[in-house]
Design a protein that fits this description.
The chain has a domain at 44-184: N-terminal domain of TfIIb (Single Sheet), CATH 2.20.25. A hairpin with a 2-residue loop joins β8 and β9. By secondary structure, it is of the alpha+beta class. The chain has helices spanning 2-27, 126-134, 146-153, 159-170, 186-201, 206-217, 226-239, 243-246, 270-289, 292-301, 308-363, 366-373; strands at residues 44-45, 55-60, 67-73, 78-85, 96-98, 110-112, 117-123, 171-176, 179-184, 221-224, 261-264. The longest helix has 56 residues, at 308-363. The chain contains 12 helices and 11 strands. The chain starts with a helix and ends in a 17-residue tail after the last helix. Strands 1-7-4-3-2 form a 5-stranded mixed β-sheet, covered by helices on one side. Strands 5-6 form a two-stranded antiparallel ribbon.
């Protein structure tokens, strides 16, 4: 019994040492991670010229009619929209580690689990006014909250002047004593939107250039026989030459035939490419910043010849693509028919051979069939009895 108590006491002492070592290592940890926040912060990139009085306010989106956040700087009357930037590959873990190098900063180092950021880009407040000016809405800026009123009433606020300057660009202004009256002008609005589209078309992003310009105007490739073209050009040149030269003897060409070259059926001219860029930019603005009804009205109000050369090219391109698709379909179907015919020939040949075998078997007598079943292994042939003796 004494030995049992001694062994138990030793085991207990070892366990106590292990527990105390673990507790000590935990207490001396370099850093303890805080609990995950239920409302983690978001990362915003703000413009340098935005003052400390800039505020994030909520206004109704002119395109979708939903409450949307905007950044407004009262001192310079600038508006900014937030563009969400996220990595394309969501399966790869990413995060933000934020810290400040300034000693007086109250920002502590922290980690943001979400890799997204929100970039503030310049925004024309004219888009906020268009739904009230050119639609049935009765409010100047629909569904604004108290934040916008506070921005307007701040000291030295330039927001009201900025909105007024944008009103003048699309409206006719009439002054009555101390009051100003504004009447929407469709022609001015079309000019402003087209001007924005032309400015955007000068520097499209590479992704839009590839998808909406290059691929949209790319024609199907066709083969050109260089030998035939050279022969045709030679014939044309000799037919227009003087008769004294045309009667000279000619020697056949011994050069090997060159392979046919491949080139697009048609190529868009620089003017067509510029029109496609302009239309792409215009469609982007109309589909992103204007109400659907106003976008449709603006498109119908454009002069009919604005994109006439582009429409002609696209019509020709559509026909060439249809012809190329039909040609590929014929090649595929033709190859399939050829394979089907070969299969039919093989099946017919096999059927004939089977039919001939059946006929042979039917014409064979019973005796011959029985003799065919006899085992002739080790038996001498009949011809062996008629050989000459040595």
């Amino acid at each position: 019994m004494a030995r049992t108590r001694s062994k138990g006491g030793a085991a207990s002492t070892s366990a106590d040492k292990t527990t105390s070592t673990t507790a000590k290592s935990a207490s001396t940890s370099a850093y303890t991670l805080p609990a995950e926040s239920s409302n983690p912060p978001k990362l915003f990139v703000l413009p340098k010229d935005a003052s400390s009085s800039a505020r994030i306010i909520t206004l109704e989106n002119p395109r979708y009619g939903k409450p949307t956040r905007y950044l407004v700087c009262p001192e310079n009357g600038s508006f900014y929209e937030f563009t969400k930037i996220a990595p394309p590959n969501k399966s790869t873990p990413r995060s933000w580690l934020l810290s400040s190098t300034e000693k007086a900063s109250i920002l502590e180092s922290q980690t943001i689990q979400s890799p997204e950021l929100y970039l503030a880009t310049p925004y024309d407040p004219l888009f906020l006014l268009l739904p009230a000016l050119f639609t049935s809405s009765s409010n100047l800026i629909p569904n604004t909250d108290r934040h916008f009123s506070e921005i307007l009433t701040l000291p030295n606020s330039q927001v009201e002047k900025a909105l007024e300057s944008r009103l003048v660009s699309v409206c006719d202004c009439v002054e009555l004593s101390d009051d100003k009256m504004y009447r929407p002008n469709d022609s001015k609005l079309s000019s402003v939107i087209l001007s924005k589209a032309r400015k955007m078309a000068e520097n499209l992003p590479p992704s839009m250039e590839e998808k909406f310009i290059k691929k949209a105007l790319e024609a199907p490739v066709m083969g050109i026989d260089s030998v035939s073209s050279e022969t045709q050009s030679t014939t044309n040149s000799t037919s227009t030459a003087p008769s004294a030269i045309s009667t000279a003897p000619t020697t056949p060409s011994t050069s090997p035939p060159s392979e046919p070259t491949f080139a697009p059926a048609i190529t868009a001219s620089p003017a067509i490419v510029s029109l496609q860029r302009l239309r792409t930019s215009l469609n982007f603005i109309l589909s992103s910043y204007l109400p659907p009804s106003l976008s449709k009205a603006l498109q119908s109000s454009l002069p009919s010849d604005t994109f006439a050369p582009l429409e002609e090219y696209l019509s020709q391109l559509s026909k060439l693509r249809a012809e190329a698709a039909a040609s590929r379909s014929n090649d595929i179907n033709g190859g399939k028919r050829a394979r089907d015919e070969e299969d039919d020939e093989r099946l017919e040949k096999k059927r004939k051979m089977e039919q001939e075998d059946k006929v042979k078997k039917a014409n064979t007598s019973r005796g011959v069939k029985q003799l065919a079943k006899v085992d002739t292994k080790g038996m001498m042939k009949l011809s062996a009895f008629f050989k000459k003796k040595a």
